[in-house]
Amino acid sequence: MPLFYFHFEHQGVQVKDEQGLSLPDHEAAWYQAVRSARDLIRAEQTLGCGWAGQWVQIEDEGGIPVDRIPLEEIARYAGGV
Q1: pTM of the full predicted structure?
Q2: What's the CA angle centered on 2, arms 55 and 65, to 5 degrees?
Q3: Which helix (H) or strand (E) element contains residue 37?
Q4: Residue 39: phi, psi to the nearest 5?
Q5: How many helices (H) and strands (E) does the chain have?
Q6: Number of structural domains the chain divides into
Q7: Which residues form the DUF6894 domain (predicted)?
């Protein structure tokens, strides 16, 4: 199975995923990114932080970007989580 990395970005600072996850395809990687972002959004709501301007970027094992998803969009479609 291919390896995917999930990097979080806020105001130009990126927290790199050095470990990655083995997933069957790009679609599975997208769903994993959304699940991880929802967990982050929930934690930030508890701490009183915002997620404006934050992104999760998915890269494949070759370092090629697969997708870049704004946390605001995830929160909006999740009904504010």
Answers
A1: 0.81
A2: 30
A3: helix 26-47
A4: -60, -45
A5: 2, 5
A6: 1
A7: 3-71
- Tell me, what DSSP letter sits at residue 75? H
| Helix, strand, coil content of the chain in percent (nearest 5) | 35, 30, 30
Residue 22 CB-density burial (10 A; 0-12 exposed, 13-18 middle, 19+ buried): exposed
* Spatial separation of the C-alpha atoms in residues 41 and 64, rounded to whole Å: 25
Q: Which residue has the tokens 């990655």?
A: 20
Question: What does the pLDDT look like over 25-58, one tens digit per residue?
Answer: 999 999 999 988 888 777 766 545 566 788 899 9
Nearest to 4 by CA among 45, 40, 36: 36
What is the three-class DSSP state of 58? strand
Q: Are 55 and 27 in contact (CB under 8 A)?
A: no
CB 35 within 8 A of CB 27: no
